[in-house]
Amino acid sequence: MTAVPATGVRVTVPGSTANLGSGFDALGMALGVHDEVEFAVTGGGLAVEVSGEGSADVPTDGSHLVVRAFRAASELVGLDVPGLRLTCRNAIPHARGLGSSAAAVVAGVAAAFALAGRELDTSALQLAAEFEGHADNAAASMFGGVAIAWTHGDRFHAVRVEPHPGVSPVVLVPAVESSTKTTRGLLPSKVPHEDAAFAVSRAALAVHALSADPSRLLDALDDRLHEPYREPAWPATTRLVRSLREAGVPAAVSGAGPTVLALPASGELPPGPDLTGFEVRRTPVDLGGVRVAPLG
Ligand SMILES: Nc1ncnc2c1ncn2[C@@H]1O[C@H](COP(=O)(O)OP(=O)(O)OP(=O)(O)O)[C@@H](O)[C@H]1O
Ligand SMILES: N[C@@H](CCO)C(=O)O
What we know:
- Catalyzes the ATP-dependent phosphorylation of L-homoserine to L-homoserine phosphate.
- Helix 1 (65-77) runs parallel beside helix 2 and helix 3 packs across helix 4.
- With 296 residues, the protein is of the alpha+beta class.
- A hairpin with a 2-residue loop joins strand 5 and strand 6.
- The chain has nine helices and eleven strands.
- L-homoserine binds at residues 18-19, 24-25, 134, 136-137, 180, 184, 226, 255-256.
């Protein structure tokens, strides 16, 4: 077991938007909305303090997602801390399609790796993706920019792609929540071959559009793999995606919803689409991914 010389670490982790249209479970992009989590090593026990998003709902014992990820990662890297005081300042909305759960997991994994003196590597991504069941959000939160995620057998992989500076996300966040687990349950086990071919071409185009030519984003963000099946969970989201796209704005459901992701060429939404019930936030792409600093 690794002894812990540091008194602790402060982790700043970005949220993310996954899928980006047809890149279901394959594409993610880190966003400039961050949770800050302090991991203070103590002489014993566990204390969890949470403020901001989710503070009324998340547990404050060992079942807290950050604690679970930290403990799993500690076991992986052979880290043994006698006790832990966790202070979470959350800005990423929960259960809205902005990668809050992946960010929480990545924070825990990054803290354990840093306290053990280890760089984040493929084993860190593997662990985070196993928590999530898919690597799109986790890879984006870990490495920043655009992530392309895939699996090989039971191994999760990802590469980072540099986003084009003209990619200017606007997220439209409704007050209602939607659980990723629930809406994954709405997906069929098979899709028509025609829709699979439609998705492959759009997902490939999305990588080009996000990294080299944002003028292609309207076509690139068109989805048939998950949005139509999940529509009953968030009809207002579906209506807004449609009206934005009809107004020429590249738009898709963010992650498993119900937030809408828009990537307008100008960075501004045009007048017209009814945004009632949605909070409009201009949110830049996070380029650096999770950051870890020693506790002062
Ligand atoms: N910072 C956090 N601390 C503790 N638990 C969290 C945190 N963030 C998310 N969670 C847990 O994860 C749940 C939300 O996960 P879920 O996968 O449904 O949505 P999401 O990650 O916000 O969105 P998406 O996966 O579509 O991007 C919360 O209800 C909470 O239980
Ligand atoms: N690809 C995932 C992202 C949300 O976690 C989904 O759509 O279910």
